[in-house]
Design a protein that fits this description.
CATH topology of the largest domain: Tetracycline Repressor, domain 2
Radius of gyration: 19 Å
Number of helices: 9
Order of helices and strands: HHHHHHHHH
Strand content: under 5%
Helix content: 55-70%
Mean pLDDT: 88
Largest sheet: none
């Protein structure tokens, strides 16, 4: 898990400091993430986010017209990170056992905050108090489908299974990895991360390794 040094809050520029637009946007997203993770969407206030970022509310509204737009920008950012992690895992090797291990690890790294843009980002994706909002639900479903599609393509290519068969196996694999990773994090140290990944990889590999291989 991230160390205390890793999770320390970034330095906030003095109020009135001019930043390039991209740097200011990154700063505002970082401040918003801290507030959303700590308070939840509904309890968070734009005043709190502006204060945490060290800017005035008009500056915040110059970049994001409302709290929902700010939240969706964060959600897009983290959803894209998870999809990228899964794709990188699949492309990292041609050994299918290692592919399974890398794919499961991608989910564990995501919930653990490893290699992501800010601690607690997984909560914005998987444990938000805004999951029933249509815009939020659509983004989470799209993220899941993109992960499923990437794994489906690999399974179909290597096994020769029909698309719907490969997709079902992919849904099972992504569900196992996501739920397992979230359980591990909530278990708060009952299992070392490496052991948790090892157990799930073993379970998954024993099932999928029996699939036929295409020539």
């Amino acid at each position: 898990m991230t160390s205390p040094a890793d999770s320390a809050a970034p330095a906030v520029p003095a109020r009135g400091t001019r930043l390039p637009r991209s740097a200011r946007r990154k700063q505002l997203l970082g401040a918003a993430q801290e507030i959303f993770v700590a308070q939840g969407y509904h309890a968070a206030a734009m005043d709190d986010i502006a204060e945490r970022a060290g800017v005035s509310k008009p500056v915040l509204y110059q970049h994001f017209p409302g709290k929902l737009e700010l939240y969706l920008a964060l959600l897009d950012q983290h959803a894209n990170e998870l999809v990228a992690k899964v794709r990188e895992a699949l492309a990292s090797t041609t050994d299918n056992h290692q592919r399974v291990a890398a794919s499961v690890s991608a989910y564990f790294d995501f919930v653990d905050g490893e290699g992501t843009s800010g601690e607690g980002g997984f909560r914005l994706v998987f444990e938000s108090d805004l999951r029933n909002d249509p815009a939020v639900r659509e983004r989470v479903e799209r993220m899941t489908q993109e992960c499923v599609a990437a794994i489906t393509e690999t399974i179909a290519h290597d096994t020769g299974y029909r698309a719907e068969e490969a997709e079902l196996l992919s849904v099972g694999l992504t569900g196992l990895a996501e739920v397992g990773a979230r359980w591990w994090l909530a278990a708060d140290g009952q299992l070392p991360k490496e052991r948790a990944v090892e157990l799930l990889v073993g379970l998954t590999w024993r099932g999928i390794s029996g699939s036929p291989r295409t020539a």
